[in-house]
Model the fold of this input.
Amino acid sequence: MDEDRFETLRELLELPGPTGQEAAVIDWLEARWAPRARRIWRSRVGNLIAHIGGQGPRLLLQAHADEIGFVVRSIDPQGFLWLTTGQVRGEPADRFPVGQPALVLGRKGPVEGLFAVATGHVVPESQRGKAVSYDDLFVDIGARSREEAIERGVHVGAGVIWNPPVRRLGTRIYGKAMDDRVALAAMTLLLEQLEASSLACDLYFAVTVQEENGLLGASSLRQDVDADYAIALEVGLVGDLPTVGERAMPTALGQGPQLVHKDASAHYDYRLTWRLAEIAEAAGVPVQHAVFERFGSDGAALIRQGIPTALLAVGTRYTHAAFEMIDERDLELTLALLSAVVRTPLG
Done:
């Protein structure tokens, strides 16, 4: 992956965009996409839609802006921030936040902090060895009182994200918010290499809000784009790590994009999914076929609105953690497949 492409992904990953506070991501995409779109606009609920152009059936490429996060539920007299999930569900023990740098999106701008629990010598015997819960986890922003925290713009309801830098390990890239910024990077890179005259479809892009909170943004997309087909773009799951394995998840990093036939929320359009497989084969792009048992996507919301939808995913290790990892080859191959899809009749 060349440095310009890596920089596009890095910028998107490092933007703050917890569920309900996705503005920084939407602003970045609108500025980057506007010069190449026929029209770009925001829906009343905050989705970003771009009409790219071309001739043929209306094809919608869709990904979501929000990332896994937390919400401030209270500020104690010492200035510590106590949290709850920013999504429908999710216990802190499943997210591995302790020790990660934190970023609180307050009324006066971002406030840095640290996800913390009592550690070492001061941990009571009754708490040793138990899983971290919301009764244990807090954010320390270095404040000395509730009043100081409030003066710095922190408030009940503020979004909180982990905030580590993006890092590379060989061909692997890891950091926060790969879900779903890797898909937004693919869309951005695709747009910047397209000519509308080469398209075999009338192409639309959509970026949705509040996917991680129940597919809320995507639930109204058809009011803005009455698409003939849609491809939801997501992170995918991989089994190439200890304790999982091929029988449970026969997918791996670096082996190409994933065509997801079913997840916990939907069976994806059979004909469209296999049409993508045919296009991939013709273009020489390897793909992996997958079924995800504990996973959902905005694609289900699009199907509920009557839009035939396929789910295309970039394999990702350690999903819903602060160290989500991809292989850069999968991003490149996903980009190659999307480039072939928009130039090939789907019918």
